[in-house]
Amino acid sequence: MVYTIEQVKALVRDFVDFPSKGIVFRDIFPIFREPAAVECLVSHFVERIQATGQQIDVVVGLDARGFLLGPLIALRLGVAFAPVRKGGKLPGSVAQVKYEKEYGADVFEMEADSLTKGQRVVIVDDLLATGGSCKAAEELVHKLEGVVVLDAFIIRLADLEGDKRLQAPVYALIDC
Q1: Residue 65 annotated among the catalytic residues of the structure
Q2: Does the pTM of the predicted model rise above 0.90?
């Protein structure tokens, strides 16, 4: 079966009151049960990235769901992939940023040699909520002297206005 992007969107399931009352959890994992849906999703993101008209050197994926799409997009674009991990998970020399989340502080890290000066980056993750995680990733890229060209997400929770905290343009497949 060949999927359209609208069919891919329809695979995302909502779970009301999960993980706690008042939260609507948006489950992207049904997409990954259908190889043709993943192909459609990756192709869609690659087309959106190419439509920026900007050269891309590295795709950066956020821990952990950004690791699902990031390497696939990087492979298709013929560029490097660099992970952003939670603190203490990477060996060697790292760049580090502390950031505030909805429920406390956290640390993100990238290996210090993940980027070289001037490399153009797309940051990929599954969800943009308040923007704290992606803002921290943007800061890491800047610390490593990279340039963020685009922040790309499967889902954006529009009411939380996380995109207003980010410096780069934002693309989301689904606005909720």
Answers
A1: yes
A2: yes
